[in-house]
Amino acid sequence: MKDSDHWVVGVCPDDPLALVQGRLYPEITANCVIAWRRNIPYSQAVNKMIEEINAYDEIILGFPIWWYVAPTIVNTFLEKYNFSGKKIILFATSGGSGFGNTARELQTSAPDSVITEGKIFHNVVKQQIAEWVGTL
């Protein structure tokens, strides 16, 4: 897959949704993703809208796993857009757990999309995530 064929989305503590097109840029680092806490209110607003996201059929969505689920702001992000017919590939950072029921729980926020588990990263560095995205 070419870099321009998908969106990469990551969750960062300083900027709740750091959104970049095509590949990982310095704005999304492993520390950024790992540092985000799960206890953000579910209704917290997603403060960025991406007009171009509708042009993409595949979204790569990254976040930390906390107790086998994604932070609730990820649900908020999925509910803010119409992902009907789109494929959403998940990646996550974790101290040791796997995806658990994450894909199934996120599916309720984007019911007409196909959500698949991509990869879990343990003790990750940004380069490892970038290399994995490059294989898609």
Automatic annotation (TrEMBL):
GO terms for molecular function: FMN binding; oxidoreductase activity, acting on NAD(P)H. Residues 45-135 form the Flavodoxin-like domain. InterPro entries: Flavodoxin/NO_synth, Flavoprotein-like_sf. This is Flavodoxin-like domain-containing protein. Signal peptide: none annotated.
